[in-house]
Amino acid sequence: MHSPQNKNCRIPVWIIDDNKEFCFILSEALNLSGTVECQKRFHSCKSALQALTTEDSPPSVILLDIKMPKMSGLDAITSIKSVTSATQIIMLTSYDLDENIRTAMNRGASGYLLKSCTPVEIINAIEKAQKGDSPVDPMITKRVMDAFLLQSSENRYFLTSREKDILQCLASDLTVQDVASKLNLSYFTVDTHIKNIYQKLNVHNRQGLVTKASKERLI
């Protein structure tokens, strides 16, 4: 497992975003600062992950978009952290949906910014993440505080209403196809929800899921 190393006084940063123009403009702005250096830009999560596995010195901070081709930024978080656990991930996206925020933070992101942020705000967030803080866009700070710092005992695992429905079906011993038919969803959609439920409850199979859900009174 790699650990990021900063050989100079500037914070090494990678940008992962499929918008090439945005990547270039942002990297130029970061490099004009005296504290941050954009070392690499990637336009897919898979290419960034491949580079991470071969890099001796991964970045201290990664700016990661959500909507990406083939592998989304949300799906990439866990893979990135498995390669370089000390690298801080800041989501930088146009999407401020509560579910995206919850998923990103649950999977290990350190911060969440909207692309409406100025370069100065992004640089400040990078500096905060480097110090171990969790920078969050001011536009969504209150919602994040409500969701993460004031966790309710009724939904401490942040299950969505759809995930709760699927969990109930799984507890009734329905197959994935049965669940899909009952909830009028595709097999792929149900399977994706189930993977998210497994991750949120930190279980690895249906028996473990049902046992923990019952113990935690989720079903």
Gyration radius, in Å:
19 Å
- The count of helical stretches stands at 10
Question: Helical percent range?
Answer: 40-55%
Overall number of structural domains: 2
Mean pLDDT: 88
**Poorly predicted ranges:** none
User: Could you say what the CATH topology of the largest domain is called?
Assistant: Rossmann fold
Element order, helices and strands? EHEHEHEHEHHHHHH
Head-to-tail CA distance between termini: 37 Å
What CATH architecture of the largest domain do you see?
Answer: 3-Layer(aba) Sandwich
CATH superfamily descriptor of the largest domain = Response regulator
Structural class by helix and strand composition: alpha/beta
Count of DSSP strands? 5
Blueprint of the fold:
Blueprint (H helix, E strand, L loop, with lengths): L10 E6 L3 H12 L4 E7 L2 H10 L6 E4 L8 H11 L4 E6 L4 H9 L4 E4 L4 H12 L10 H9 L11 H11 L4 H8 L3 H15 L4 H10 L4
Parallel strand pairs: 1-2, 1-3, 3-4, 4-5
